[in-house]
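A further point concerns the way the authors explain their paired sequence and structure data. Nothing conveys this as quickly as seeing an actual entry. An entry of this sort, consisting of the sequence and the corresponding backbone structure tokens, reads as follows:
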Amino acid sequence: MIVLGVILLVVGFLLGIGILWTIGIVLLVIGVILWVLGSVGHAVGGRRHYW
């Protein structure tokens, strides 16, 4: 999810498409939150780790 967010950010920036930029930011933030929650030991979606 983090990688997809970064890809959408880059594509949205290069092509000048605002909606891709926004979706990229949202996916990046959600991915980082899930990664942090999984790394501190909280179960995310029934899984102990989120990769």
Remarks:
- Residues 38 and 49 are 5 Å apart (CA to CA).
